[in-house]
Amino acid sequence: MSSSLSSSAPFSLSKSQGRPLGQRLLILSAWLAFGLLLLLPLYVVLSEALKLGFGTFFSAMLEPDALAAMQLTLIAVGISVPLNLVFGVAAAWCVSKYEFRGKSLLITLIDLPFSVSPVIAGLIYVLMFGAQGWFGPWLLDRDLQIIFAVPGIVLATLFVTVPFVARELIPLMQEQGTQEEEAARLLGASGWQMFWHVTLPNIKWGLIYGVVLCTARAMGEFGAVSVVSGHIRGLTNTLPLHVEILYNEYNHVAAFSVASLLLVMALFILLLKQWSESRINRQRHNSAEE
Amino acid sequence: MSRRTSPVIPGFGLTLGYTLLYLSLLVLIPLGAMFLKTTALSWSEFIAVITDTRVLAALQLSFGTALAAALINGVVGTLLAWVLVRYTFPGRKIMEAMIDLPFALPTAVAGIALTALYAPSGLIGQWATDLGFKIAYTPLGISLALTFVTLPFVVRTLQPVLADIPREVEEAAACLGANPWQSFRYVLLPALLPAWLTGFALAFARGVGEYGSVIFIAGNMPMKTEILPLLIMVKLDQYDYTGATAIGVLMLVVSFILLLLINLLQRRIATP
Amino acid sequence: MSLRRFTLAALTSALMVGSLPASAATELLNVSYDPTRELYVEYNQAFNRYWQSKGHEAVKVQQSHGGSGKQARSVIDGLRADVVTLALASDIDALYQNGKLIPENWQSRLPNASTPYTSTIVFLVRKGNPKGIKDWDDLVKPGVEVITPNPKTSGGARWNFLGAWAYAQKKFANDEAKTRAFVTQLYKQVPVLDTGARGSTITFVNNKIGDVLLAWENEAFLALKEEGGDNLQIVVPSLSILAEPPVTVVDKNVDRKGTRELAEAYLNYLYSEEGQRIAAKNFYRPRNAKVAAEFAKQFPTLELVTIDGAFGGWKSAQPKFFGDGGIFDQIYRAK
């Protein structure tokens, strides 16, 4: 993951006529690769989902287990995204506004969940909170349940989405430097006033961008959640796990229907992302003109 | 402008403290638990677990397919980034928006979609069968799944850098008599290389650990198409917790080293 | 500020977790293996009717399905199953060995060694049987691709493995080297080794890989029913293994939750005529002689060896064949 805040106005020296041959070939092959690698899988999901028409498509989505899975997915997203949002702002703040020893190490640690295998992300919580784990007996005595219940699913989701907001904000805040904040302080603003009125407006769109990516990943996590879920129907299945279950029940069409629901959500998220990105670019453009 | 610690900006202690606390609770302590679990093994036992032939085969497969996927993305991603930054063409906005789809799409969905596509009864699989080779349930299928999942990395790391290279630089090179290949080789490549390597390494690191999208298409044959994360699952299901965590620790160390390298690389980009 | 409103909404949804249903006494969690989904959907309804007719409150039976070994591990790791209904006894033995969740003699608590229904391993082939597969011998013919799951993770796969072994043992008159060579050759012809029985069925039926699927008899019948019988047919080998999937109450969990009476009634009712009939309707071979006679036509007769008779029980078969470094590992390492 990296900031993709680029895509400033492309060099538009040529209209489609008079394009050099090399350029045409490049664009053509780009479309080819894009179509083969990205569009074709999309097409498969949608065509499999609609194989038996819209009736089965919608009934698969409105089935009680699917709705329960939807609810659980929303809960996991609703908890993990705000927590990682606060964390991301705090982490980006200390990393970008100050110099200190071990900064590279800290950034690496923030990134770590991103490249840890999802299976390991689930495994570590089993080792901590499983009946045989560190806190297992303690939890059992108090009749508290973490893994194979909602808290475990939330924890696993939190783990895999830790870096997203922080990773978007760090480069943005580094670029902006500290001058505006310093000015605000000199004019007598308190720390919070400075944050709300100077910093936040500056990073607003980057923040939204990070939240959007974080939401997407939280919604779709499979491996980590699968390890800690217990797969109880209607209770501890998230939407991606529900897709797997349907797929395993000869319910091919229903599996792809729920999958396409997730796909539509993903596309919607990309739309949001595109929108926040364009706002960032505009903001940047404006500040460059000032 | 100096980036020294600014005494007037408050909140260093608060934010650093919170960051460390949050990371410790959520990431460090659980990962530490895994390391501790592995200490139940002696060094020689640990070495024995990770040099077991089946583990080695999975290691080779996971790293090999992740490498292949990262290489494919190194080429395709560069192409896509180049085209997106340099040209306007019909559908550019759509392409730009949808590049991130593999990040946003749940990996399980990617898994079943790719299997449906590449299995011998699938759209592309059929065609491959006619030509006499198999995609799904072979390392090729795993590489393709990983290519899908890690596609955005190289594109997204290259785009900002490409956009920052003024076109005049290439034009100047052309004026000085360089052919397009020479100006690519001597002007663009050195500027792009660090970002390219970052994207490549990110894709590689993610690919090694990927589970959801691969598990459907892999075939899961011990010694042949069994990836490392699956081997961890298999070991767990045999109540071999220490064996599972030993492999987990190995993967963790590798991804940590990779990430540290990436961050050092990015620092070098930031301070040329 | 929209951000503040967003935070508020997020906090509200965070609070919703607190109000998730707490487990009441009228809920029961049945942790089962892959192919029993359809069986227990039907059985749970029947049991509910019976339970309510006895003057109890309606009970919500929750189901969890997955590979048998993985499900056992989840229970050991703290999944609070009231009852487990798994693919084979050694997976339930693990509940005793790791964490003492059940007593060692769990298998003697219910009739028929706690296996209310049985099954066997049969072959599923493409319509018309193009490769002419009739018996285990035909599986090792050149060019035949066999689909079976991984015995390390799937209970059904272990029955498959032992079925092949039992056949070869008889054929080669207990010559272990030849038996092993036969089974090794068989596994050389397996192109995909899924983690669970259901995964293998999907691979064979939907993704059309392989010429023959080694499957639970019930799974094969179900696949045929789902498929409509247009593309598949069942082949019954001359000899197979009697698969005995056992059930038990998880003592530690029911005692903590106070659900013992309900859990025991739930399992006992599997032995009732109605329970047996539902099992038979879902293609499991019933234990009850009367119900068995009713469904006699559905189940072909063939020579069935038992795990106790041919392999000395799971306690010796599990480590010998499927333990770390066991025969299955050796077969794959040798390749």
What does this structure look like?
- The complex is a heterotrimer of chains A (290), B (272) and C (335).
- Chain A is mainly alpha-helical and 290 residues long.
- Chain A contains 13 helices and no strands.
- Chain A has a single domain (52-289), classed as MetI-like (MetI-like fold, Orthogonal Bundle), CATH 1.10.3720.
- Chain A has helices spanning 21-49, 53-62, 64-97, 103-115, 118-129, 136-141, 150-161, 163-176, 179-186, 191-220, 223-229, 239-247, 252-289.
- In chain A, helix 1 (21-49) packs across helix 13 (252-289), helix 2 (53-62) packs across helix 13 (252-289) and helix 3 (64-97) crosses helix 10.
- The longest helix of chain A has 38 residues, at 252-289.
- By secondary structure, chain B is mainly alpha-helical.
- Chain B starts with 11 loop residues before the first helix and ends with a helix.
- Chain C has two domains: 2-115 and 244-294, D-Maltodextrin-Binding Protein, domain 2 (3-Layer(aba) Sandwich), CATH 3.40.190; 119-243 and 302-333, Periplasmic binding protein-like II (D-Maltodextrin-Binding Protein, domain 2), CATH 3.40.190.
- Helix content of chain C is 48%, strand content 15%.
- In chain C, the strands form two sheets. In chain C, strands 4, 5, 6, 7, 8, 10 and 11 form a seven-stranded mixed sheet that branches.
- In chain C, helix 2 (37-53) links the parallel strand 1 and strand 2 (60-66).
- At the A-B interface, helix 1, helix 3, helix 4, helix 5 and helix 7 of A face helix 1, helix 3, helix 4, helix 5 and helix 6 of B.
Compact overview of the structure:
Chain A is mainly alpha-helical and 290 residues long. Helices cover 77% and strands 0% of the residues of chain A. Chain A has helices at 21-49, 53-62, 64-97, 103-115, 118-129, 136-141, 150-161, 163-176, 179-186, 191-220, 223-229, 239-247, 252-289.
